[in-house]
Each structure stands twice: as structure tokens, then as C-alpha cells.
Amino acid sequence: GLERGAKNQFSTFSNFITTINQKKEGTGTRSPPTQLVIPNMKNVRDLPPICLDVRQKQRMSVDTLPQELKAPIPPEPSLPLRTKTVKDFQDDVEKAKSSGDWKAVHDFYSTSFDSFLEINAAFKKDANFPFNTIEDSGINAKFVNVVYDALLNTPQDVQKSVLKGIINGLLQEWKGPRTKDDLRAYCILLQNPQFSNTSTYVIYAHLLRQIAALTEADHHFLVHWSKKIAQRRFKQLVDRLLQFISLRLFPAKPEEFPPMMKCTWWIPSATKVLALFNAANSLSSPSIISYTDFYNSTLDHIDLMEEYHNWQCYGNSHRFSFCQYPFIISIAAKKVIIQRDSEQQMISIARQSLVDKVSRRQKPDMNMLFLNVKVRRTHLVSDSLDELARKRADLKKKLKVTFVGEAGLDMGGLTKEWFLLLIRQIFHPDYGMFTYHKDSHCHWFSSFKCDNYSEFRLVGALMGLAVYNSITLDIRFPPCCYKKLLSPPIVPCDHNTLVGICDLTLEDLIQVMPELAHGLSELLAYEGNVEEDFYSTFQVFQEEFGVIKSYNLKPNGDKIPVTNQNRKEYVQLYVDFLLNKSIYKQFAAFYYGFHSVCASYALLLMKMHIMCGYIVYLLCQDISLCTILFLVCLGYRYFWEVVLGFSLDLQKKLLHFATGSDRVPVGGMADLNFKISKSETSTNWLPVAHTCFNQLCLPPYKNKKELKQKLIIGISNAEGFGLE
């Protein structure tokens, strides 16, 4: 079947395997080759999950393991001597192409991939050096890349010999722990471009299964070694794993693969290996690839709520769920999970309220099903915080807002307007609760001491309401705020337990106060005498209401000088003080307020931008194509020309005017369902918007100039509901 296929195409593994010489020294009977059963191997679902499940309290994650693990290191077997260099191999390939004689190249491939020992002999930088540290894998990456780049352009028998050798290596019966040479072989085999072809997926699956089954100490090495892979090849590895998962879920040709019931371990194995690359990417600074490159959009088309409920019900058990690995789920899919989880909670709370009313023989009414907030625009903050404080028992009901003295009915638009105006006032610097850092464009908690922190609790509840009711807010919190909100992810029963405290580094401080973080980085890199030149102690000075106050970073810190030896400790204590200790009471109140509404496991899947949304840099690009034909039919062919010519500020005003929020939803403009309709009114009228339905109504303006003029007037004077 291989000879009949096109170049780089392989027959299915079940056909190909029968051509392989079935030999295995020291063993008796063996399983049929089509099964490729690995002896003494546990089912992959019995393995500890390699994921960022925060509920695994007792399990150490791959990014927190010590630099050197005290696991027994088995002796490395002596490697056969191989002297072929990159140039020798390239010369052999060129000669084969010109002469048509591929024997030398065939011999190299068949020998080099015949076993894990031979893989190390061919690609290890120094056969006599152990390379037992995480800093250096000992792999000759350049040679590996050249060999793999040439592989797909070789004849089919050469490519078959590589697959045959890989099978021989995977069929090896393992006794005792893996050696570092074994880990090197796994790292090299993962980069094989042949595994992009579906006909090799059975071999690929067994390779992934063995890697997923390695110990956590071995995973630790693989993670750090993977950090050294070049960006382009790292991306190819990730894409290959994502494609493997997608095609197993939705195969284009189901007959190419074994029945799903016989290979349920394929997807868990691939996802766990993908988690290793995600850990490597997270540990790299800067990241090798974007975190969005790990998203698998295919998962948007499966029953995510079933995955979520499996994760909720079985938690840390051996039952696999994609929710154990949130990095693979797209932000739009996570948003759907949070929305549906919130809706289910709202229905449950409303049903319970109805039952309570009926059981007390009271007449039910519709208002009991909602969290009804009535506010005056002139007293927006005080009225809102009073309403939230009085109605804490109803916070998990569906939110409905009424502005006193206005005729608007809340179908979603009033709620968005209320959040937007309220956030604008609460986060204003004059209000004193939050500080805006211009160099990072982020808000952070004010460290000023006060007698009552209840307002921070109410603001936390407000943030929780936004997430719970799927409202996008114009708030720019740094990512470390999300880390703190999940420390711990579930509110502790003991109120003496510290909350909102987590290990933060200089990288976190850069996202809040980049200028200060830069100064601390220079301190760490300073080559002179720190004590004499900086003359600093373990103290921090802060201005509070015009008075300079000092705080010791450690006991007697004012008497301890910062030196070359202790400057790392000084920087870490400084960061901890700024992001944890100095704002502890403020953030603890915010934490309890937020979790009073958002006490859901679904929150663990999300990043902070579920609340913050995106800035409208490309507002029109995403939606113009789907509306332009409709606009031409209405006679508004100039609409997008006008809007694309607007400044960013005017574009945000247009979005606010039409939707009630100037932020693009988390899933992008595709999730906005933006509508434009013709209004049968006089051209003297300004545009009208129905923010509950994201609908813009335009009178039949005669030309582009009139459309632009009336549109700017309308969006620049758009606050309040109803007509006067």
C-alpha cells in the first residue's frame, strides 16, 4: 500500500505493521503487532493528571519542583560510537539525490532509530557525558533538525525503516525507572514530522501514552528541556498534538482509526503531553508562543457542560475531563461554561425562592425572582452600594436595574449602563479606593489605611456580579489580581485563614509598576558594591496623606543593609510587600465580596479578561463584512467608510451608544450580534439605539456628510434612557 500511495503518504498502521520483522530478544509469546501492547504499562487514566487543577492540594506541579530532584538515577548504558556529523549526513543526502542510490541514507536512518540506545548514539552531543541536569538535554538539536527536515523527502522504504525502528523502541520491555537517555529519546521522537500523517497515529498514540506515563520527576526534565526547542519547531509540536486530538474527536475518515472504545486513552495521553509543553511555555520568559496557540477550537463543538460536570463531580479522580486542562479550552468556550453555570445557579435560586413563598402560603410575584437594584443617577455609588448591602441574600439572582425617574425597561441594556457608570466613578482616582498607574495602564488597590473596608467588599461583589451576569467591564486589573482571587480558589471555612496571598515575583510587579520593577531589576544586575553605592536597608517608604511612613520588610529591617548577597531577598520582600502585605485588608475584603457571588469552579477556568474584555482597536473589521450588504440595501453604503474614519475614542463611543458598553466581548465581535436597522423617521432625527438588543436605528440620511454629522452628535450625547 505504501508504494501505491502518493509521496509522504503511509498506509494505515494495521497494514504496515504486518511487514515488520517481529523479533524481541528474551521474550516468549507476544501480543499481536496490530495491538502494539506495551508490557507492564498502566492505563493512562490511572496516571496522575499533568494539569493545573488547583484542587490538587497535595500534588507538586511541574513548575514548582526543585532544581535537582533526589530521585535515584539509574546507570546509563554505554552507547555505541557513531561519528557521522551534520555535514556527513548532508553530503550523503545530496549524493543519494544525484545518483538515486539511497543505501547510505537508508542505513543511517534504520540504524539511528532502531532503539532508544541508537537514538542517543546518533544525536547525543557527547556519548561519554551524562547530561543529567535540566539545564542541558545533551541533544544535538541542529543534527536532529537536519535529519527530520530531510526525512519526508526520502523514498518510502527509508521512511518505513524509521517507523519500524520507533516501534522496536516502544516495544522494549522496561525494567525499573527510565534513564536520562530514555528521556532524550522521547524528546527526539516527539519531533518526528511523520506523526503529522494520520496513518502513523497508532504509533504516535503509543509514544504519547508512554510519555504521559512517566514519573513526575521525568516530566520535570522534559518540561525544562522543551524550553530549549526553537520557536517554530515548538509551535509545530503543539499544532501536531492539537491536530491529533481534533482528528480523534472528529475523524475525517473514521475507518483510518481503531474504534473509539478501544482507544479511549488516546486523547488523555495527548492532552497530558500537551500540558508539558504548556508548562514549558509558561516557565519561559518571554513565552515561546502565545497562550492562545494552545487553544483547540474543535472543543467548541463538543458538550462542554458535560465535561464541566464531570470535572465538578469527579474532581481529582482518574476520570478525564478537558476542564482539568483549561489552557486547551478557548476563551469563548470558557465564557459559555461560565454563562451556563451562572444560568443554572440563577434558576436554582429562583426555584428555591418560589418554593419558600408557596410553603409560607404567600402570593408569589415576579420581583422575587430577580435582584432588583433601584438607583438615582445623582447618587449612583451610594445608592448602588446600599442596595447591594441590603440584598446580599439575592446576589445570585438575575440582575435587573432601574434608574429612578426614567422610563427604560431593563432587558440587559440598563444593566450594562449601570455597570459602566458605576465603575467609572468607583475607579476614579479622586474616590481613593484604587490607584491608576499610567505607565502600565492598570488599576491597583490603594494602600492607604482606613477604618472600614466594607466598601472594598461591596466592590468585590460588584465585580462578581459582572462575571455572574456576563457583563464586560472597562477595568484593567493586572493578571496577578486573578492569581490572588484564586488564593485559595474556594473560600476557606476558617475566617482566620489568610486569603489573597500568593507567591508573586518581579515579573508580576512589572505588570503593575514597570518603572519601579525596572529599578529593582537594575539593582539585581548591578555589578558594583550594592551596600556602598545604594546605601539601602530592608525598609519601604510610602506617602500617605502627605506624610512619609516607613515599613520594615523584616524584623529590624531598618538596621539591615542591602548587600550583593541579600539583594534577591530584598527584592522578593519588596514585591511581596507591595502586592500582598500593604493591601492585605483591602484585597481580603474584595476577595470575600467577589466570592460571595462567584463561588463556582467555572471561575478556575478563566483568566481575568473575562471581566475586562478587549479594547476596540478593530471594532469595524470583524463585523463590517457581515453587515455591509445589508447596509447597502438600506441605503447606508457610506456607513463603514464613516466609522472606519473615526478616531478610537469615537469608535468606542459608537460601541457604547449601540450596546451599552464600550468593550468588545471576550469572544470577539462575532459574539456581539450587532444589528443595524432603518428607522422610518425624519432625517432631522438623530440615531437611536436599543442597547438591550445591540441594535442601531438610523433614519434615511441623504448623504455621507449628513450621516457622519448626525452620528457624531448622537454618540457624543448618549447617556440616559427614554426620549424627552
TrEMBL record:
Gene3D superfamilies membership: Hect, E3 ligase catalytic domain, Hect, E3 ligase catalytic domains
Enzyme active site: C692 (glycyl thioester intermediate)
Catalysed reaction, written as an equation: S-ubiquitinyl-[E2 ubiquitin-conjugating enzyme]-L-cysteine + [acceptor protein]-L-lysine = [E2 ubiquitin-conjugating enzyme]-L-cysteine + N(6)-ubiquitinyl-[acceptor protein]-L-lysine
Taxon lineage: Eukaryota, Metazoa, Chordata, Craniata, Vertebrata
Domain HECT: 391-724
Record protein name field: HECT-type E3 ubiquitin transferase
EC code(s) of this entry: 2.3.2.26
A Pfam match: HECT
Transmembrane parts of this sequence: 587-604, 616-639
Organism field: Nothocercus julius
Alphabetical list of PANTHER family matching this protein: HECT-TYPE E3 UBIQUITIN TRANSFERASE, UBIQUITIN-PROTEIN LIGASE E3C
Keywords linked to the UniProt accession: Ligase, Membrane, Transferase, Transmembrane, Transmembrane helix, Ubl conjugation pathway
Record bears the keyword Membrane: yes
UniProt-listed GO biological process terms: protein polyubiquitination
Single GO MF annotation: ubiquitin protein ligase activity
